[in-house]
Each structure stands twice: as C-alpha cells, then as structure tokens.
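Please decode residue identities from the backbone states below.
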C-alpha cells in the first residue's frame, strides 16, 4: 500500500537532500509607495501594513522566478505563518517610497524561514527588520507535513539558485 506522500507528484530534489539550506546573501527587492490606506490618522504607516508588504514581497519573489503561490495551493499545500518577529526601527510616512527586501534564510525540515528589511530606496535608512517562519500544511488533512512535498522542494531549489 502506497503512502499519501508517495502518491504526490514527484520532482527532482537532489539539491535539497540535506534537510537544511543556508541563507542566500542576495535579496529580492519590492518597491512600494505609501498610500493613505496604509497609514493611521497621523500619516504614519500602520504596523500591520508592514506585514502585508512583507507577504507581498515574498509572493512576488517567488513569482519573479516563475513560481505561482496559487499553483502550490492547487497542489493541495498551504504555507501558513507560524512565527513572526518584527522590529520597528523608524517610521515610514505617507507619500514615501520604500523597498521591501526579502530572502529565504533557511529551511529545516518543513520550516521555511524568511528574512526581511524595509529600507529607503537609497539604502541609507532602515525602517523595519523581520523574520517569518512558515510551515507546509497538507490542506486536505489540515496537518503539518512531516517532509516538504517534492513540488515545494523543487520550488525552493529554484528560488535559492536564482538569488544566491
């Protein structure tokens, strides 16, 4: 009798066999302009907006190399956030443009760690630093998977090679 993991689509995963992938030094950059709906009444970016921007940057970083998050969902996987750490260094204000920088920091088992920096376009001002940890969930069973699915491993290999 085949296990459910054996029945999943099989893709080449030789570059990620070692359960841990070191942090890439390169960052994906995603530029945003602060609009009124991003701010509080004083024109300062609301703290939750930064988290939305970080998620957008992570999704766009994958899209930039041809990996659509919707495709992972269609395969029956989800990647919910299980841990989030944000440090606010300096406020971002209405009308400013900032760059959200992201990179995959590490993968251990089914844990995927991403680093973030939100900076001025010239890189001279640091506004926010953050780390987000995701896990892979089997949507049908509603449980954390014991191993990354082959399709997710392949996507991560492609991502780490694109920005390393």
């Amino acid at each position: 009798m085949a296990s459910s993991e054996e029945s999943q689509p099989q893709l080449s995963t030789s570059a990620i066999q070692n359960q841990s992938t070191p942090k890439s030094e390169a960052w994906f950059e995603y530029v945003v302009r602060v609009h009124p709906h991003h701010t509080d009444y004083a024109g300062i970016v609301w703290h939750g907006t930064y988290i939305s921007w970080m998620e957008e940057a992570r999704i766009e970083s994958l899209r930039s190399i041809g990996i659509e998050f919707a495709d992972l969902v269609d395969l029956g996987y989800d990647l919910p956030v299980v841990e989030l750490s944000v440090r606010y260094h300096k406020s971002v204000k209405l009308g400013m443009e900032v760059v959200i920088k992201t990179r995959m920091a590490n993968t251990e088992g089914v844990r995927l760690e991403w680093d973030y920096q939100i900076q001025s376009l010239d890189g001279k001002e640091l506004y926010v630093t953050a780390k987000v940890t995701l896990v892979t969930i089997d949507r049908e069973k509603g449980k954390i998977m014991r191993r990354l699915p082959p399709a997710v491993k392949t996507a991560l290999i492609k991502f780490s090679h694109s920005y390393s």
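Observation: Residues 29-162 form a domain with the Thiol Ester Dehydrase; Chain A fold (CATH 3.10.129.10).
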